[in-house]
Amino acid sequence: MRKYQQLALLLVSCFSIGVLLMYKSENNRLKYVLKYVNFFGRNDAAVLRRMHNKTEDDQKLFVSALSKPLPVWQLIGDNFHAYSAFWNRNELVAGGDAQVLVVGNQGAVVDFRCSFDVGGRKVQGKFRFQRDSTESVIDDKSSTFTNYIFFCQVSRNFGHPEYVSFSDITAPIKRQVKLRLRHLRPQNVPDKPHTLKATPTTAPVKVRLPATICVDLVNFNMSSHYAHNVDALLQFFLFHQALGVEHFMVYNYDVLPEQVVLILQRTNMHLYALPFNFPFEQINATTRLRQILQSDCLLRNLNYAAFTMLLKPNELIYPSSHFIGKLSMQNQLRHYATEISRFELATFAVCFDEHKKLLLDNVQYDPEVKSAYKLFLYRLELPPAQLLLPKATSVELPLSNGFAHRYGDCQNVGHDGLHDWRNGLRQDLMDHIDSLRDEVDLLI
Protein backbone atom coordinates (compact mmCIF):
# COMPACT_ATOMS: atom_id res chain seq x y z
CA MET A 1 0.00 0.00 0.00
CA ARG A 2 2.86 2.34 0.87
CA LYS A 3 4.45 1.73 -2.56
CA TYR A 4 1.23 2.80 -4.35
CA GLN A 5 1.08 5.99 -2.29
CA GLN A 6 4.68 6.82 -3.22
CA LEU A 7 3.93 6.15 -6.92
CA ALA A 8 0.84 8.39 -6.80
CA LEU A 9 2.89 11.12 -5.12
CA LEU A 10 5.56 10.83 -7.84
CA LEU A 11 2.96 11.11 -10.62
CA VAL A 12 1.37 14.16 -9.00
CA SER A 13 4.80 15.78 -8.67
CA CYS A 14 5.65 15.15 -12.34
CA PHE A 15 2.29 16.53 -13.44
CA SER A 16 2.79 19.64 -11.28
CA ILE A 17 6.24 20.24 -12.75
CA GLY A 18 4.83 19.91 -16.29
CA VAL A 19 2.07 22.43 -15.56
CA LEU A 20 4.64 24.81 -14.04
CA LEU A 21 6.88 24.62 -17.12
CA MET A 22 3.93 25.16 -19.45
CA TYR A 23 2.79 28.18 -17.41
CA LYS A 24 6.29 29.63 -17.50
CA SER A 25 6.47 29.24 -21.29
CA GLU A 26 3.10 30.94 -21.84
CA ASN A 27 4.05 33.69 -19.38
CA ASN A 28 7.23 34.41 -21.37
CA ARG A 29 5.20 34.64 -24.59
CA LEU A 30 2.81 37.10 -22.97
CA LYS A 31 5.72 39.22 -21.73
CA TYR A 32 7.14 39.23 -25.28
CA VAL A 33 3.89 40.58 -26.73
CA LEU A 34 3.47 43.15 -23.95
CA LYS A 35 7.04 44.27 -24.46
CA TYR A 36 6.30 45.31 -28.05
CA VAL A 37 2.94 46.85 -27.21
CA ASN A 38 4.63 49.01 -24.58
CA PHE A 39 7.56 49.67 -26.92
CA PHE A 40 5.27 51.38 -29.41
CA GLY A 41 3.75 53.35 -26.54
CA ARG A 42 0.16 52.38 -27.30
CA ASN A 43 -1.92 51.60 -24.28
CA ASP A 44 -4.82 50.91 -26.62
CA ALA A 45 -2.85 48.05 -28.23
CA ALA A 46 -3.01 49.59 -31.69
CA VAL A 47 -1.26 46.63 -33.24
CA LEU A 48 -3.91 44.25 -31.99
CA ARG A 49 -6.89 46.48 -32.70
CA ARG A 50 -6.20 46.23 -36.43
CA MET A 51 -7.31 42.64 -36.50
CA HIS A 52 -11.04 43.25 -36.32
CA ASN A 53 -13.84 43.23 -38.82
CA LYS A 54 -15.27 46.40 -40.29
CA THR A 55 -19.00 47.02 -39.91
CA GLU A 56 -21.30 47.39 -42.88
CA ASP A 57 -21.98 51.04 -42.03
CA ASP A 58 -18.25 51.81 -42.07
CA GLN A 59 -17.92 50.27 -45.51
CA LYS A 60 -20.88 52.15 -46.97
CA LEU A 61 -19.69 55.54 -45.72
CA PHE A 62 -16.11 55.33 -46.94
CA VAL A 63 -16.87 53.59 -50.23
CA SER A 64 -19.35 56.35 -50.99
CA ALA A 65 -16.81 58.99 -50.01
CA LEU A 66 -13.75 57.82 -51.91
CA SER A 67 -14.64 55.38 -54.68
CA LYS A 68 -18.01 56.44 -56.08
CA PRO A 69 -18.77 56.89 -58.84
CA LEU A 70 -16.55 54.03 -60.00
CA PRO A 71 -14.31 55.01 -62.91
CA VAL A 72 -14.79 52.94 -66.05
CA TRP A 73 -13.76 53.48 -69.66
CA GLN A 74 -16.82 54.59 -71.61
CA LEU A 75 -17.02 55.28 -75.36
CA ILE A 76 -17.89 58.88 -76.26
CA GLY A 77 -18.11 59.46 -80.00
CA ASP A 78 -16.24 57.20 -82.39
CA ASN A 79 -12.63 57.75 -81.33
CA PHE A 80 -12.62 58.68 -77.64
CA HIS A 81 -13.10 56.96 -74.28
CA ALA A 82 -13.68 58.71 -70.94
CA TYR A 83 -12.55 57.26 -67.61
CA SER A 84 -13.71 59.56 -64.80
CA ALA A 85 -15.40 62.96 -64.54
CA PHE A 86 -15.05 65.57 -61.75
CA TRP A 87 -17.10 68.67 -60.99
CA ASN A 88 -15.14 71.67 -59.71
CA ARG A 89 -17.21 74.62 -58.47
CA ASN A 90 -15.55 78.03 -58.64
CA GLU A 91 -14.81 79.62 -55.28
CA LEU A 92 -14.66 83.33 -56.11
CA VAL A 93 -16.92 83.63 -59.16
CA ALA A 94 -20.08 81.93 -60.31
CA GLY A 95 -20.09 78.65 -62.18
CA GLY A 96 -17.55 75.87 -62.47
CA ASP A 97 -16.35 73.18 -64.81
CA ALA A 98 -16.28 69.43 -65.31
CA GLN A 99 -12.85 67.87 -65.79
CA VAL A 100 -12.87 64.52 -67.61
CA LEU A 101 -9.96 62.11 -68.14
CA VAL A 102 -10.09 60.95 -71.76
CA VAL A 103 -8.02 58.95 -74.25
CA GLY A 104 -8.50 59.14 -78.01
CA ASN A 105 -7.17 57.58 -81.17
CA GLN A 106 -3.88 59.11 -82.26
CA GLY A 107 -4.61 62.04 -84.60
CA ALA A 108 -8.39 62.03 -84.11
CA VAL A 109 -10.20 65.38 -84.47
CA VAL A 110 -11.47 66.74 -81.14
CA ASP A 111 -14.80 68.55 -81.59
CA PHE A 112 -17.52 68.08 -78.95
CA ARG A 113 -20.57 69.73 -77.47
CA CYS A 114 -21.27 69.34 -73.75
CA SER A 115 -24.06 69.95 -71.25
CA PHE A 116 -24.99 69.24 -67.62
CA ASP A 117 -27.95 67.40 -66.10
CA VAL A 118 -29.31 69.03 -62.94
CA GLY A 119 -32.45 67.43 -61.55
CA GLY A 120 -33.72 66.53 -65.02
CA ARG A 121 -32.90 69.99 -66.42
CA LYS A 122 -30.27 70.40 -69.16
CA VAL A 123 -27.75 73.27 -68.95
CA GLN A 124 -25.51 73.92 -71.95
CA GLY A 125 -21.77 74.22 -71.28
CA LYS A 126 -18.73 75.50 -73.15
CA PHE A 127 -16.34 72.77 -74.33
CA ARG A 128 -12.56 72.96 -74.42
CA PHE A 129 -9.74 70.44 -74.04
CA GLN A 130 -6.04 70.12 -73.39
CA ARG A 131 -3.59 67.33 -74.04
CA ASP A 132 -2.26 65.66 -70.92
CA SER A 133 0.92 67.12 -69.44
CA THR A 134 3.01 64.09 -70.43
CA GLU A 135 2.16 64.47 -74.13
CA SER A 136 4.55 67.41 -74.43
CA VAL A 137 7.52 65.43 -73.13
CA ILE A 138 6.86 62.00 -74.71
CA ASP A 139 7.88 61.31 -78.27
CA ASP A 140 6.37 57.88 -78.78
CA LYS A 141 5.25 57.57 -82.38
CA SER A 142 4.28 53.94 -81.86
CA SER A 143 1.51 54.86 -79.44
CA THR A 144 -2.05 54.32 -80.67
CA PHE A 145 -3.71 56.81 -78.29
CA THR A 146 -3.37 60.27 -76.81
CA ASN A 147 -4.26 61.47 -73.30
CA TYR A 148 -6.63 64.41 -72.89
CA ILE A 149 -8.47 66.37 -70.25
CA PHE A 150 -11.90 67.52 -71.48
CA PHE A 151 -13.53 70.54 -69.87
CA CYS A 152 -17.17 71.56 -69.84
CA GLN A 153 -17.56 75.02 -68.33
CA VAL A 154 -20.49 77.14 -67.16
CA SER A 155 -20.35 80.72 -65.86
CA ARG A 156 -23.36 80.72 -63.54
CA ASN A 157 -24.58 78.79 -60.52
CA PHE A 158 -27.43 76.41 -61.23
CA GLY A 159 -27.08 73.82 -58.45
CA HIS A 160 -25.11 70.62 -58.12
CA PRO A 161 -24.91 68.76 -61.45
CA GLU A 162 -25.15 64.98 -61.37
CA TYR A 163 -24.04 64.23 -64.94
CA VAL A 164 -22.06 65.82 -67.75
CA SER A 165 -22.93 64.83 -71.33
CA PHE A 166 -20.73 64.90 -74.44
CA SER A 167 -21.71 64.70 -78.11
CA ASP A 168 -19.06 64.13 -80.82
CA ILE A 169 -19.81 66.54 -83.67
CA THR A 170 -17.51 64.69 -86.07
CA ALA A 171 -19.30 61.33 -85.61
CA PRO A 172 -21.75 60.24 -88.35
CA ILE A 173 -24.36 59.41 -85.72
CA LYS A 174 -24.82 62.16 -83.14
CA ARG A 175 -25.53 60.82 -79.68
CA GLN A 176 -25.07 62.19 -76.19
CA VAL A 177 -23.14 60.13 -73.63
CA LYS A 178 -23.73 60.85 -69.96
CA LEU A 179 -20.91 60.59 -67.40
CA ARG A 180 -21.57 60.54 -63.66
CA LEU A 181 -19.79 63.42 -61.90
CA ARG A 182 -17.71 63.20 -58.75
CA HIS A 183 -17.75 66.46 -56.77
CA LEU A 184 -14.32 67.74 -55.76
CA ARG A 185 -15.94 69.54 -52.82
CA PRO A 186 -18.08 66.83 -51.21
CA GLN A 187 -21.08 67.40 -48.98
CA ASN A 188 -20.78 64.37 -46.65
CA VAL A 189 -17.55 63.13 -45.09
CA PRO A 190 -16.52 62.01 -41.58
CA ASP A 191 -16.62 64.95 -39.18
CA LYS A 192 -13.02 64.38 -38.04
CA PRO A 193 -10.18 61.94 -38.75
CA HIS A 194 -10.72 58.31 -37.74
CA THR A 195 -14.40 58.72 -36.85
CA LEU A 196 -17.31 57.51 -38.89
CA LYS A 197 -20.08 60.01 -38.21
CA ALA A 198 -21.06 62.03 -41.29
CA THR A 199 -21.90 65.74 -41.07
CA PRO A 200 -23.75 67.33 -44.01
CA THR A 201 -22.41 70.76 -44.96
CA THR A 202 -22.32 73.03 -47.97
CA ALA A 203 -19.02 74.66 -47.01
CA PRO A 204 -15.70 73.49 -48.46
CA VAL A 205 -14.62 70.36 -46.63
CA LYS A 206 -11.45 70.39 -44.54
CA VAL A 207 -8.88 67.64 -44.85
CA ARG A 208 -10.14 64.51 -43.10
CA LEU A 209 -7.60 61.74 -43.71
CA PRO A 210 -3.86 62.04 -43.01
CA ALA A 211 -2.90 60.18 -46.19
CA THR A 212 -4.12 57.75 -48.82
CA ILE A 213 -2.21 55.54 -51.25
CA CYS A 214 -3.23 54.69 -54.81
CA VAL A 215 -1.98 51.26 -55.86
CA ASP A 216 -0.98 50.78 -59.50
CA LEU A 217 -1.72 47.21 -60.56
CA VAL A 218 -2.14 48.31 -64.18
CA ASN A 219 1.59 48.66 -64.89
CA PHE A 220 2.77 46.16 -62.26
CA ASN A 221 4.29 42.88 -63.45
CA MET A 222 2.09 40.23 -61.84
CA SER A 223 4.34 37.45 -63.15
CA SER A 224 7.38 38.63 -61.16
CA HIS A 225 8.83 36.79 -58.16
CA TYR A 226 7.70 39.66 -55.96
CA ALA A 227 4.08 39.40 -57.12
CA HIS A 228 4.02 35.67 -56.35
CA ASN A 229 5.22 36.28 -52.79
CA VAL A 230 2.15 36.71 -50.58
CA ASP A 231 4.16 38.01 -47.62
CA ALA A 232 5.75 40.71 -49.77
CA LEU A 233 2.37 41.94 -51.05
CA LEU A 234 0.97 41.93 -47.52
CA GLN A 235 3.93 43.91 -46.21
CA PHE A 236 3.25 46.66 -48.75
CA PHE A 237 -0.10 47.31 -47.07
CA LEU A 238 0.97 46.56 -43.49
CA PHE A 239 4.03 48.76 -43.61
CA HIS A 240 2.13 51.78 -44.93
CA GLN A 241 -0.60 51.13 -42.38
CA ALA A 242 2.07 51.33 -39.68
CA LEU A 243 2.83 54.83 -41.02
CA GLY A 244 -0.80 55.84 -40.52
CA VAL A 245 -2.26 55.06 -43.97
CA GLU A 246 -5.44 53.00 -43.82
CA HIS A 247 -7.09 53.89 -47.14
CA PHE A 248 -5.87 52.29 -50.37
CA MET A 249 -7.36 52.83 -53.84
CA VAL A 250 -6.38 49.80 -55.92
CA TYR A 251 -6.50 50.23 -59.70
CA ASN A 252 -7.13 46.97 -61.58
CA TYR A 253 -8.13 45.42 -58.25
CA ASP A 254 -9.17 42.08 -59.75
CA VAL A 255 -5.56 40.96 -60.29
CA LEU A 256 -4.77 41.23 -56.57
CA PRO A 257 -4.40 37.62 -55.29
CA GLU A 258 -7.46 36.40 -53.41
CA GLN A 259 -5.28 35.13 -50.56
CA VAL A 260 -3.99 38.66 -49.96
CA VAL A 261 -7.49 40.15 -50.13
CA LEU A 262 -8.91 37.67 -47.59
CA ILE A 263 -6.16 38.48 -45.08
CA LEU A 264 -6.47 42.25 -45.50
CA GLN A 265 -10.24 42.05 -45.05
CA ARG A 266 -9.64 40.97 -41.46
CA THR A 267 -7.90 44.26 -40.70
CA ASN A 268 -9.42 47.72 -40.43
CA MET A 269 -7.84 48.84 -43.69
CA HIS A 270 -10.13 50.27 -46.35
CA LEU A 271 -9.47 48.87 -49.82
CA TYR A 272 -11.32 50.46 -52.74
CA ALA A 273 -11.61 48.37 -55.91
CA LEU A 274 -11.22 50.58 -58.99
CA PRO A 275 -11.53 48.88 -62.41
CA PHE A 276 -9.33 49.72 -65.40
CA ASN A 277 -10.79 48.18 -68.55
CA PHE A 278 -8.45 50.10 -70.87
CA PRO A 279 -9.71 50.13 -74.49
CA PHE A 280 -6.32 50.39 -76.26
CA GLU A 281 -3.22 48.21 -76.44
CA GLN A 282 -0.92 48.90 -73.51
CA ILE A 283 2.39 48.05 -75.21
CA ASN A 284 5.02 50.78 -74.58
CA ALA A 285 2.36 52.93 -72.88
CA THR A 286 3.52 52.79 -69.25
CA THR A 287 4.15 56.53 -68.89
CA ARG A 288 0.82 57.54 -70.42
CA LEU A 289 -1.12 55.00 -68.36
CA ARG A 290 0.64 56.07 -65.19
CA GLN A 291 -0.30 59.69 -65.87
CA ILE A 292 -3.97 58.74 -66.19
CA LEU A 293 -3.85 56.92 -62.86
CA GLN A 294 -1.94 59.80 -61.26
CA SER A 295 -4.51 62.36 -62.39
CA ASP A 296 -7.45 60.26 -61.21
CA CYS A 297 -5.70 59.59 -57.90
CA LEU A 298 -5.09 63.30 -57.26
CA LEU A 299 -8.60 64.42 -58.15
CA ARG A 300 -10.22 61.52 -56.27
CA ASN A 301 -8.37 62.38 -53.05
CA LEU A 302 -8.57 66.17 -53.23
CA ASN A 303 -10.37 67.53 -50.13
CA TYR A 304 -10.35 64.06 -48.55
CA ALA A 305 -6.67 63.58 -47.64
CA ALA A 306 -3.64 65.66 -46.71
CA PHE A 307 -1.23 63.53 -48.77
CA THR A 308 -1.43 60.90 -51.46
CA MET A 309 0.93 58.81 -53.61
CA LEU A 310 0.70 56.48 -56.57
CA LEU A 311 2.75 53.34 -55.86
CA LYS A 312 3.21 49.86 -57.26
CA PRO A 313 3.11 47.03 -54.70
CA ASN A 314 6.91 46.70 -54.89
CA GLU A 315 7.43 50.36 -53.96
CA LEU A 316 7.56 51.32 -50.28
CA ILE A 317 8.15 54.76 -48.82
CA TYR A 318 10.19 55.40 -45.67
CA PRO A 319 9.38 58.90 -44.38
CA SER A 320 11.08 60.20 -41.27
CA SER A 321 7.77 60.30 -39.35
CA HIS A 322 4.22 58.96 -39.38
CA PHE A 323 1.33 60.66 -41.15
CA ILE A 324 -0.48 61.12 -37.83
CA GLY A 325 0.52 62.66 -34.51
CA LYS A 326 2.29 65.85 -33.39
CA LEU A 327 5.43 65.05 -35.40
CA SER A 328 3.51 64.04 -38.52
CA MET A 329 4.79 64.53 -42.06
CA GLN A 330 2.37 67.39 -42.50
CA ASN A 331 3.93 69.28 -39.60
CA GLN A 332 7.47 68.44 -40.71
CA LEU A 333 6.88 69.85 -44.20
CA ARG A 334 5.22 73.08 -43.08
CA HIS A 335 8.47 75.05 -43.56
CA TYR A 336 8.10 74.54 -47.33
CA ALA A 337 6.09 77.14 -49.26
CA THR A 338 2.39 76.36 -49.61
CA GLU A 339 2.56 76.43 -53.42
CA ILE A 340 4.86 73.39 -53.40
CA SER A 341 2.49 70.56 -54.23
CA ARG A 342 4.78 67.55 -54.56
CA PHE A 343 7.90 66.18 -52.92
CA GLU A 344 10.24 63.91 -54.85
CA LEU A 345 11.57 60.90 -52.94
CA ALA A 346 15.00 59.45 -53.67
CA THR A 347 14.39 55.87 -54.80
CA PHE A 348 16.71 52.88 -54.25
CA ALA A 349 16.53 49.84 -56.55
CA VAL A 350 16.75 47.20 -53.80
CA CYS A 351 17.50 43.55 -54.57
CA PHE A 352 14.56 41.38 -53.54
CA ASP A 353 15.32 38.01 -51.92
CA GLU A 354 12.16 35.94 -51.58
CA HIS A 355 13.79 33.85 -48.84
CA LYS A 356 13.94 36.81 -46.45
CA LYS A 357 10.91 37.19 -44.24
CA LEU A 358 10.78 41.00 -44.13
CA LEU A 359 11.37 43.43 -46.96
CA LEU A 360 13.54 45.61 -44.74
CA ASP A 361 15.97 42.70 -44.40
CA ASN A 362 16.92 43.29 -48.05
CA VAL A 363 19.77 45.77 -47.67
CA GLN A 364 21.61 45.63 -51.03
CA TYR A 365 20.74 47.99 -53.89
CA ASP A 366 22.12 48.77 -57.33
CA PRO A 367 22.92 52.52 -57.63
CA GLU A 368 23.14 52.32 -61.43
CA VAL A 369 19.51 51.26 -62.00
CA LYS A 370 17.44 54.20 -63.24
CA SER A 371 13.65 54.32 -63.23
CA ALA A 372 11.44 55.56 -66.04
CA TYR A 373 9.52 57.76 -63.58
CA LYS A 374 9.97 59.56 -60.27
CA LEU A 375 8.05 58.95 -57.07
CA PHE A 376 6.25 61.99 -55.67
CA LEU A 377 4.46 62.54 -52.39
CA TYR A 378 1.61 64.96 -53.20
CA ARG A 379 0.39 67.55 -50.72
CA LEU A 380 -3.25 68.20 -51.57
CA GLU A 381 -3.55 71.85 -50.60
CA LEU A 382 -3.65 73.46 -54.05
CA PRO A 383 -6.52 73.82 -56.56
CA PRO A 384 -6.81 70.93 -59.04
CA ALA A 385 -5.62 73.07 -61.96
CA GLN A 386 -2.29 73.69 -60.21
CA LEU A 387 -1.88 70.06 -59.12
CA LEU A 388 -2.22 68.85 -62.72
CA LEU A 389 0.13 71.40 -64.32
CA PRO A 390 2.89 69.93 -66.55
CA LYS A 391 5.49 71.50 -64.26
CA ALA A 392 3.77 71.48 -60.89
CA THR A 393 5.93 73.06 -58.21
CA SER A 394 8.05 70.36 -56.62
CA VAL A 395 11.10 69.90 -54.42
CA GLU A 396 13.40 66.96 -53.79
CA LEU A 397 13.29 65.78 -50.19
CA PRO A 398 16.61 65.13 -48.43
CA LEU A 399 17.24 61.60 -47.18
CA SER A 400 16.70 62.83 -43.63
CA ASN A 401 13.04 63.50 -44.50
CA GLY A 402 12.37 60.27 -46.35
CA PHE A 403 13.11 58.03 -49.32
CA ALA A 404 11.63 55.07 -51.19
CA HIS A 405 12.55 51.49 -52.10
CA ARG A 406 11.65 49.77 -55.33
CA TYR A 407 12.15 46.00 -54.92
CA GLY A 408 13.14 43.85 -57.86
CA ASP A 409 15.47 41.20 -59.21
CA CYS A 410 19.14 42.20 -59.42
CA GLN A 411 20.12 40.12 -62.44
CA ASN A 412 22.43 42.53 -64.26
CA VAL A 413 24.34 44.40 -61.58
CA GLY A 414 26.15 47.58 -62.61
CA HIS A 415 29.93 47.98 -62.71
CA ASP A 416 29.92 49.71 -59.32
CA GLY A 417 28.41 46.63 -57.66
CA LEU A 418 25.82 46.54 -54.90
CA HIS A 419 25.69 48.95 -51.98
CA ASP A 420 24.06 48.93 -48.53
CA TRP A 421 21.21 51.45 -48.46
CA ARG A 422 21.62 51.91 -44.70
CA ASN A 423 24.96 53.66 -45.18
CA GLY A 424 24.54 57.40 -44.99
CA LEU A 425 21.28 57.38 -43.00
CA ARG A 426 21.10 59.26 -39.73
CA GLN A 427 20.76 57.12 -36.63
CA ASP A 428 17.42 58.63 -35.58
CA LEU A 429 15.92 57.80 -39.01
CA MET A 430 17.34 54.28 -38.83
CA ASP A 431 15.84 53.82 -35.36
CA HIS A 432 12.46 54.98 -36.70
CA ILE A 433 12.65 52.48 -39.58
CA ASP A 434 13.65 49.67 -37.19
CA SER A 435 10.60 50.39 -35.02
CA LEU A 436 8.37 50.11 -38.10
CA ARG A 437 10.09 46.85 -39.01
CA ASP A 438 9.31 45.43 -35.55
CA GLU A 439 5.66 46.41 -35.89
CA VAL A 440 5.30 44.73 -39.28
CA ASP A 441 7.14 41.68 -37.92
CA LEU A 442 4.41 41.27 -35.28
CA LEU A 443 1.67 41.35 -37.90
CA ILE A 444 3.08 39.34 -40.78
Any overview of this molecule?
This protein has 444 residues and is α/β, with parallel strands linked by helices. It is built from 9 helices and 20 strands. The strands form 4 sheets. The protein has a 7-stranded mixed β-barrel. A hairpin with a 7-residue loop joins strand 7 and strand 8 (176-183). The radius of gyration is 26 Å and the shape is elongated. The relative contact order is 0.12. Mean pLDDT is 82; it is low at 31-59 and 190-205.
- Overall CATH architecture of the largest domain: Alpha-Beta Complex
Shape: elongated
Order of helices and strands: HHHEEEEEEEEEHEHEHEEHEEEEHEEEH
CATH class of the largest domain: Alpha Beta
- Using only C-alpha atoms, the radius of gyration works out to 26 Å
CATH topology of the largest domain: Spore Coat Polysaccharide Biosynthesis Protein SpsA, Chain A
Helix/strand class: alpha/beta
Distance between the termini: 57 Å
- Tell me the strand order in the biggest sheet: 2-3-6-5-4-7-8
GO molecular function, one term: glycosyltransferase activity
Organism: Drosophila busckii (Fruit fly)
EC number: 2.4.1.-
Subcellular location: Membrane
Which helices and strands appear, and what pairs or packs with what?
Elements: H1 2-39, H2 46-49, H3 56-66, E1 74-76, E2 80-89, E3 96-105, E4 112-118, E5 121-131, E6 145-154, E7 163-168, E8 176-183, E9 209-216, H4 230-242, E10 247-251, H5 258-264, E11 270-274, H6 286-301, E12 305-311, E13 315-319, H7 329-332, E14 342-345, E15 347-351, E16 364-365, E17 375-379, H8 384-387, E18 394-396, E19 402-408, E20 419-420, H9 427-443
Parallel strand pairs: 2-8, 9-10, 9-12, 10-11, 14-18, 15-19
Antiparallel strand pairs: 1-2, 2-3, 3-6, 4-5, 4-7, 5-6, 7-8, 12-17, 13-19, 14-17, 16-20
Helix pairs in contact: 4-5, 4-9
